[in-house]
Write a structure and sequence with these properties.
By secondary structure, the protein is of the alpha/beta class. The chain has 3 domains: 6-79, no CATH class; 87-237 and 303-337 and 351-365, Alpha-Beta Complex (Spore Coat Polysaccharide Biosynthesis Protein SpsA, Chain A); 393-525, Hexapeptide repeat proteins (UDP N-Acetylglucosamine Acyltransferase, domain 1, 3 Solenoid), CATH 2.160.10.10. It is built from 12 helices and 32 strands. Strands 18, 19, 21, 22, 24, 26, 28 and 29 form an 8-stranded parallel sheet that branches. A 7-stranded mixed sheet has the order 8-7-4-9-14-11-15, sandwiched between helices. Strand 31 (518-519) and strand 32 (524-525) form a beta hairpin. The N and C termini lie far apart (97 Å). 41% of the residues are buried. Keywords: Allosteric enzyme, Amyloplast, ATP-binding, Chloroplast, Nucleotide-binding, Nucleotidyltransferase, Plastid, Starch biosynthesis, Transferase. Residues 28-42 have a biased composition (Basic and acidic residues). One of its GO terms (cellular component) is chloroplast. This protein plays a role in synthesis of starch. It catalyzes the synthesis of the activated glycosyl donor, ADP-glucose from Glc-1-P and ATP.
Amino acid sequence: MSSMQFSSVLPLEGKACISPVRREGSASERLKVGDSSSIRHERASRRMCNGGRGPAATGAQCVLTSDASPADTLVLRTSFRRNYADPNEVAAVILGGGTGTQLFPLTSTRATPAVPIGGCYRLIDIPMSNCFNSGINKIFVMTQFNSASLNRHIHRTYLGGGINFTDGSVEVLAATQMPGEAAGWFRGTADAVRKFIWVLEDYYKNKSIEHILILSGDQLYRMDYMELVQKHVDDNADITLSCAPVGESRASEYGLVKFDSSGRVVQFSEKPKGDDLEAMKVDTSFLNFAIDDPAKYPYIASMGVYVFKRDVLLNLLKSRYAELHDFGSEILPRALHDHNVQAYVFTDYWEDIGTIRSFFDANMALCEQPPKFEFYDPKTPFFTSPRYLPPTKSDKCRIKEAIISHGCFLRECKIEHSIIGVRSRLNSGSELKNAMMMGADSYETEDEISRLMSEGKVPIGVGENTKISNCIIDMNARIGRDVVISNKEVRCPPSEFKPGPKILKKTTLVSETMPLCAISDRECKKPTGRRRGTTSGPGSW
């Protein structure tokens, strides 16, 4: 039985991907699945409908007419399909090399992305986990200042058997001196990528990378990056900026954007002030479907999350703007004039951990009921280093609105609206309220604790009858008994005390025998009788 032959291809109006929906007439009934010649001819006819390009996102409607029986036709109907973005064509670059001055002293011995958050995570776990959950597993992490703990965490978590993923790679790119360069330090976000452009180019030779995703290592949010990349592909954009609505109080801290009805960015202003800030206000009523009272958020801020076409990024960094060092303040405001720069508005929870205040508030918000953000989600979990610690042990404790990490020892203590990090130890009578305790890197045995106390020293953790509130306690801090550390209505000289959460620096030693001031809720004075102690970190005296 002869197969049906088509010679006439009649394009119809409209752009579409062709899909067979109906066969009419006896000849089309003879187009059997097992007839390879018929299938090949039909595929050839489809390619003719599609301008010879083969399968694609768009094509033309067609009617195929039979040579044997002109009355018999194969109708190909309009069926709109997207050109779906492929995560295998995306490489992520996480910027983690900033000095972190606004998070000091938490960054005195660690890089910003290595700062603990949420009890058991590190900031770097946020973009890393978002990448894995989005299907992106080609990741570069760029480091510079105090990167030892960050490198160690990445190795233990993502390179040393902690998190398993297939057909991917995680590579750490540390700032280094190159031949012919005056200095090897990154001079900005764009300069960091430029200095390792040769690594990326070499990587492209063996991988089909079409898009570069630039991420920040100091933010808290959950995002499917492929939704961002999909919009980038749909708009045929050269650059796509992920943006978020922000309120008046913090708008000047970010790069602000304006975009037209098509989503194309028409104005970008980096951290504007005064009249320049006022000029960046936009009507955010179009966000009614996503957020409550959008009038409270009259600005659209760049999140510092960008998608570039690979060739566009290489051209900008190597040729067009080879002397510029920062994406936000230098390259993007110029690029929008001669490139298709699109905006992707992200309306879920997003917090930029750029200051001690925002870091403290973001952690305390995790304790709220219900919280604005949760680390736990069975479909999109956040990963961190597997520590294999025992469950937390508590004895006669009062705990309210708190997050308790694993491996802690809590004895007859009171914890309210606080985060307790891994391996934390709180002794009898101690109280924590509105505090973040980061925990410890290792345990001290009972014998070690007894020996330290017999020598008049203080073990890691919080001693008996100590009261702490509005405070960040860094890793491995040693706080003795009968200590009061508070930060409410403290009366100290303005030049010596600044508002905001108090920070107990890493390895801080605070004991009842130290000749320091005790901070109470109302006064700052030298104790009388039995001496009590507190810390002398920034924000203290």
